[in-house]
Design a protein that fits this description.
about 100 residues; 5 helices; mainly alpha; globular
């Protein structure tokens, strides 16, 4: 079981592949962070936003986690709209 709450039914191939990839990153904590974000947002992302998210998916888990928690500064070329949405999503989950 992956933990996903969203079905991939109705998603195009690119979104289905990205949803799967974000739920299977390698570390469980990042699976949950990225996967839950994908569950919530993947259907509404534009093509440009999908590209940003695919690029974030290439960042190693420890590095991305440090960016999300504020332990390290996010490089300007990654501090884009989708990253900020992901960071805000993560911050809201921490409060719940």
């Amino acid at each position: 079981m992956t933990g996903t709450e969203r079905s991939s039914a109705g998603l195009d191939l690119r979104r289905r592949q990205l949803l799967y990839r974000l739920w299977h990153r390698g570390t469980r904590e990042m699976d949950l962070i990225m996967g839950r974000f994908a569950d919530a947002a993947i259907g509404d992302l534009t093509a440009a936003e999908l590209s940003e998210l695919e690029r974030l998916a290439d960042v190693p888990d420890p590095e991305l986690y440090e960016w999300l928690t504020g332990a390290c500064t996010v490089p300007p070329d990654y501090d884009l709209a989708v990253f900020r949405r992901l960071r805000d999503f993560y911050a809201l989950r921490q409060v719940e």
